[in-house]
Amino acid sequence: MRSMSRVSAGRAEEWQDSEQRELEVDGQSVVVVRYEGEFYALRNQCTHKDVPLLGGEVSDGKITCAKHGGRFELATGRARALPAVKPVLIFKTAVEDGEVFVESL
Ligand code: FES
């Protein structure tokens, strides 16, 4: 059985809106985004080519891959703009006692 870890992403109040941070969860690089007060976490790898999503523009509930402009919905990981077609894996986020946690779904 795979061991599942739950990783702290720090205090919620220390995040700016639209801030992004990279975390490692179960050996995978994950990009955590605060957007309109909510926390989202996606695998930090575009599904078009092997390029990190970290640092991509966040707007309209989506993160844009800086390489070719593929866009992914933060909440679902669905690809919403070409050339990205396949969804990106998403992770679960939770805020407990003011601390943000990320874990595999
Ligand atoms: S590598 Fe992300 S859209 Fe091409």
TrEMBL record:
Keywords: 2Fe-2S, Iron, Iron-sulfur, Metal-binding. The keyword Metal-binding applies. It comes from the Bacteria. InterPro entries: Rieske_2Fe-2S, Rieske_2Fe-2S_sf. SUPFAM superfamilies: ISP domain. Residues 11-20 have a biased composition (Basic and acidic residues). CDD domains: Rieske_RO_ferredoxin. This is Ferredoxin. It comes from Deinococcus piscis.
